[in-house]
Amino acid sequence: MMVRMSASGKEGNEGARRRLFGNVAALYLLQGLNYLIPMATLPYLVRVLGIQTYGLIAFTQAFAQYFVTFTDYGFNFSATRYIAQNKQERSLVVRMFWCVMVVKILLMVSGMVILTAILVFVPRFHAETAYFSVAYLAVVGSVVFPQWYFQGMEQMKHISVLTGAARLVTSGLLFVFVHSPSDALTAVGLLSAGPLLAGILGFGVAYLDLRPEFYLPSRHELWETANDGWHLFISTAAISLYTNTNVFLVGLLAGNTEAGYFSAAEKLIRALTGLIGPITQAFFPHISALIAEGKAVAVVFIRKTLRLTGAVSFLGSLVLMTFANPLAHLLFGKNAAGSVPIIHWIAFLPFLITVSNALGIQTMLSFGLDKLFSRILVASGILNVVLAFPLIHFFAAKGAAISVLIVEAAVTVAMIVVLEGEGVHLFRGTKSA
């Protein structure tokens, strides 16, 4: 029997489609600023600071990123999903907003205590106390910026405008105030000021969007919120074990110069990967909402996006592999020639990451397979640490590149196997409703 869609139904679908594409466009504007601006400042910093001093900055930023992951606590997925599914219920959105904010602030304070203890008792960190302390400002900015709220409400334009403007201002100031290795601390401060400024502005916009309404959550509600994000926190923490950890371990085991080589190469890779990022961010809440219409509908949508993003990212990886040498010299200068072999090893990460994001974030999380998703990433994070220590010991920064390539490939294969076992066939058939 043919079912005719009502006019209101058509309008609703058209509205959802326009909102989705609008969110993708807004996030592409954000990604353009998030990656083009750093890619403009990165060559400048490498040249004026030197690869060793730049490596020190990369090392301190990588360490601060652990606290960003700790305070994010998986809310960019769990809270986003909750708000996307309940955004018509204002009282539930307000409750979730304040529960998440309070939990994140408590985690931030705990992080400050942990950082202080490390700076006091660990000599390797104590010598650079000022750098690590200033880098923590980026953590504060991450805590107060409610990205999960804007994503769940499908208001990505706020993320684009606020984050982009903050990055544009602070990155521009780098060219004004950073001219030599003696300005390295100023550089760390300005790099951290971007997320902090965006966080303050973002919180203000979200607060006004709630017109303004404050809710004081109970301890039980805070516990429920933290418990709901636990598996996704473990997942994001595990991801950092084979992304952020490699920069940190290279700096720890092989020195700041090798950390500079690896960081420069990785930033180029992440910039290319970021071209697909807006699709993942915008489609996650959309797919979460599609689940209500039927899992088969969501699978069809995911399959279409996977074909498109997979093809684009594969082509990008191929270009990066082919032109690694001229790109490295053009962007980083002769001082960063050591990054070329690293780029060769990780050139196909954009393709692998794009596929694993479609399998993991868009599919496993949307289908509620949080625990299986978490187990894959925890196992992969452990595998990276096991591989990275000996590989970095023998091959320095190149060893870290080899490790992360193996692990990203393992993540992608594991997700395919698990989804097939759960009856979610993205490459054949559909999941029965």
How do the helices and strands line up, and which of them pair or pack?
Layout: H1 7-49, H2 51-72, H3 75-86, H4 90-121, H5 123-126, H6 129-135, H7 137-144, H8 147-152, H9 156-177, H10 184-209, H11 219-228, H12 230-241, H13 244-254, H14 256-273, H15 277-290, H16 295-322, H17 324-332, H18 340-346, H19 349-365, H20 370-395, H21 397-421
- Any low-confidence stretches, pLDDT <50, length ≥5? 1-11
- Portion in beta strands: under 5%
Largest sheet: none
Helix content class? over 70%
Arithmetic mean of pLDDT: 84
How many β-strand runs? 0
Radius of gyration: 22 Å
State the assembly state of the protein chains. single chain
Tag the structure with descriptive keywords.
433 residues, mainly alpha
Give an overview of the whole structure:
This protein has 21 helices and no strands. It is globular, with a radius of gyration of 22 Å. The N terminus is likely disordered.
Brief characterization of the structure:
With 433 residues, the chain is mainly α. It has helices spanning 7-49, 51-72, 75-86, 90-121, 123-126, 129-135, 137-144, 147-152, 156-177, 184-209, 219-228, 230-241, 244-254, 256-273, 277-290, 295-322, 324-332, 340-346, 349-365, 370-395, 397-421.
